[in-house]
Amino acid sequence: MSNMINITIDGKKVQVPAGSTILQAAQTVGIHIPTLCHLDLHDIKMVNQTASCRICVVEVEGRRNLAPACATPVAEGMVVHSNTLKVMEARRTVLELMLSDHPKDCLTCAKSGECELQDLAELFNIRNIRVSGTSMSTYKKDISPSIIRDMDKCIMCRRCETMCNQVQTVGALSAVNRGFDAVVATSFEAPLNETVCTYCGQCVQVCPVGALTEHDSTWEVVEALNDPDKIVVVQTAPAVRAALGEEFGLEPGSLVTGQMAAALRRLGFDYVFDTDFAADLTIMEEATELVDRLTRHLNGEDVPLPLLTSCCPAWVNFIESQYPELLDIPSSARSPQQMFGAIAKSYFAEKLGVRRDQMVVVSVMPCLAKKYEATKFEDDNNQDVDYSISTRELANLIKRMNMDLKELPEEDFDDPLGESSGAAVIFGKTGGVIEAALRTAYEWVTGETLENVEFEDIRSTSYGLKVAHIKVGDLTLNIGISSGLGNARALLEEIKAGNPNNLHAIEIMACPGGCVNGGGQPYAHGDMKKIQARQAALYREDCGKPIRKSHENPSIKKLYEEYLVKPNSEKAHHLLHTQYTAKERV
Amino acid sequence: MACNCCNGEDKEKYAELEAFIESLPTTKGELIRVLHRAQGIFGYLPREVQVYVAKKLNIPVSKVYGVVSFYSYFTMKPKGKYDISVCMGTACYVRGAERVLEALTKKLGIGTGETTMDGKFSLRSLRCVGACGLAPVVMIGDKVYGRVTPESIDDILNECE
């Protein structure tokens, strides 16, 4: 074939398509060239190819200087040596130069053990750093409720910038200044909370070092658990159970729902509940809103359509700062995390006969934006959700408690806020929220029983943008689904242009693939196969549930009977809904 | 879409910038050109102007700030009536430009990138201006002074009235 190129790497003959890099060619024959700045997430159309770190340099015969393998295209007849002494020496020098301007506080660094720079220092057996000089370790630490930016640790790989701009199209980060002062920063180097940052945390997912990390709340949680005067309640989001096992050496896609409940109980939580319960509650409120808007629309009323889902806090941050003119279309329903907090500190606290300030609600989320979201809802200076910790933080807590998740028995969640349907568990995957809403809306609109609850057309997408047409009785609903904020932007632009596809409802999740790939999940290092395995796990859990429709959840029915009266009632509105405000951000 | 916070004079400047942006066949890839013009109109590029440019060009503010902070030509601080640039290119540097800059810093009481309190002088350094034969070179506005020494700066500054 004419578009194939033949090269030799370390004596091995390789044939690769024209345009491939030396790095890609080497990978096809099992030669592992170390990289640091490079990141290829081709499944979500992100390739970070800044060639700025120079760890991947190789010798190319006939070329005077060393070539970065990640950014050098192959040429016919090229002879490459990736493992010469000259290459080894060069990589050592490059590493030492980077380390000479890197803080040496690995002992207390949040990324220790997961740091790609640390891994390289170990691989190259760096014991002393022969170069020294001015260090730029003076950049102020930027602490937001969700993400901590410690730019002294930045190695200028610019993965975060690529993710923020190209995949998410948020535009919060850019390389600023030049030369020694160059740094990846926000507009005017403002703190994150003054910028368009949505706290989606995808930058944290790709940062190779400790420059971008989550705002850890585990010690606060431990203190609450240690306080005998507090009743500590925990809720876990759907996506957590499909990924937590990875932190304990289990295969991606292993479901650890039962072991996770057992671990939480052993950590000392008084009640181990499930955000899935609140996901069912979300469907009750959101599907009511959808059916209401559709009915009025069909009666010729001027109602805002399409209805946008509002479970994802990063997505809410995105629309509030980037599309203030569209704030009338999202559902007013709060996210499951917040519905849970509001119900726990009212309905459940009343059942127990305790004041809301005697109760501490902790959420375990696959998400970093949830940490910020938790700060938004409070009553009497007491947050509905006191602490939100990530899947990674929970894994660390379990390990800290000297437990191995794999060895724990499978236990159930507590009642009543632990009961959930299969519809709730798929909230963690792109398409899941809208499928769950359709299972309920279908039955409400048609008055018939929905026999096949799996909407294959919706399920077929694991990442990206999708339009599906779903028959609901005589109606055909046009559904938009997008994951990744870049795809969300495309849908919003379509709505701004007059909604030419006549979409009735849109589900948006900020992270590529949905919450299973959230900013707080175990580091997937860009491996979309892991993400797909987590997605499949959620469908498996749904499939195994005796109840698969939110409105059939007995504990939800009871909650309405005893407390909320009906969806969208005054009480429901007060506790479960919210308003959106335009945010001027840079 | 001019901002509400500015006075009449600013309004005119924003209108001029807006007219320039709208005269472009496309705004794609024109950020640097627009910033050039904006600095020409406003004299410098304050935060508000950068936010305005980002909105008009439909690009993130962070990208605008990234470019403004990268190029030494762009400034976020207002320049003085007399904008003094000291060439720090190789030829000027080896012939003592650093000492000239030091003397100017001392004399004016400001660092590079700063403006005197009375708004009369601003000081910055730049790379080669292409007059290496006259090194070291100092520019005030468009006027070029050659073979400058720390001792001759008084005479040059006295010309600025």
Automatic annotation (TrEMBL), chain B:
Cofactor (UniProt): [2Fe-2S] cluster
Cofactor comment text: Binds 1 [2Fe-2S] cluster.
Chain sites annotated for binding [2Fe-2S] cluster: C87, C92, C128, C132
Sorted UniProt keywords: 2Fe-2S, Iron, Iron-sulfur, Metal-binding
Domain of life: Bacteria
GO MF annotations in UniProt: 2 iron, 2 sulfur cluster binding; metal ion binding; oxidoreductase activity
This protein's record includes keyword Iron-sulfur: yes
Family affiliation: Belongs to the complex I 24 kDa subunit family.
UniProt-recorded name of the protein: NAD(P)H-dependent oxidoreductase subunit E
Organism of this sequence: Bianquea renquensis
Taxon lineage: Bacteria, Bacillati, Bacillota, Clostridia, Eubacteriales
